[in-house]
User: Fold this.
Amino acid sequence: AFYKLSNTKLQIQAYVFDVIRASVPKLNLDDVFEQKNDIARAVEDELEKAMSAYGYEIVQTLIVDIEPDEHVKRAMNEINAAARLRVAANEKAEAEKILQIKRAEGEAEAKYLSGLGIARQRQAIVDGLRDSVLGFSVNVPGTTAKDVMDMVLVTQYFDTMKEIGATSKSSAVFIPHGPGAVRDVASQIRDGLLQASLNQ
Assistant:
């Protein structure tokens, strides 16, 4: 007499290992964890075929846990950590980009509003000068608009000199001064205005 199957446990274990060795190398490690049920079904089918001849019926196979090698586990943890760091770096870069965009938008809005303020200020100065010129021409007979503008330029010239002298931050500023200096400044301004109007 002889036995076809002398050690059932070892025989089943050998079939299980054979099926796992045939199935697992075809998959990535992440897929192995995800496809535990598929591997269990493959083991069940192979065991059913092999063991039914010996009178065994395989009801169900379960893969309870997958234990990769310690080096593999460490490598997987490092890969996961690197992926999380990459996501965090991308999120941080995106946040910095949004911050820079918002800062640039704020600066652009501030410059726009500053430009509006300067334009209104200059308009007010022009309106005031016009009223002054008209009022002075009416009140002092024989004066022309040019005479009044020359007087305004002299006043502004002296105001500018006073401002430069009053500020402590200015080191040395050379300003032409003499009887013809204001006339030169006035003619330069007039020439500049005429040139600008001709270019338009």
